[in-house]
Amino acid sequence: MKNITESSDRSFTTTLSDLIEYPASGIFRKTLLKDNNVEYNLLCLVAGKELNEHTASRNAVITVVEGSGNLNLAGKDIALVPGVFIFMPARTPHAVQARSNLAFMLALSE
């Protein structure tokens, strides 16, 4: 499925569970909305996938939609399960590991 990418000058709605797709390996990413201030992405990681430690140049919010995993946030382990909400200031080191297929929203903002 292609990215939805809406603009912020009009309202739109979607059901996240309908958009979840897991690739055979790796990560599937859909950009739902993007403008000059914020970007909303749905990320789907297959079980066993790891994102090595990295940083983001913008503030980041993760909201877990389904599955389970682990987030190492500046040296602290956080369980990723549905409903978990995490705020990370820009440039905070973090890494992600999917224990099962894992889907989460990632919002990047100024």
Automatic annotation (TrEMBL):
CDD domains xref list: cupin_HP0902-like
InterPro entries: Cupin_2, RmlC-like_jellyroll, RmlC_Cupin_sf
Location of the Cupin type-2 domain: 45-102
Designated name of the protein: Cupin domain-containing protein
One Pfam family hit: Cupin_2
Native source organism of the sequence: Chamaesiphon polymorphus CCALA 037
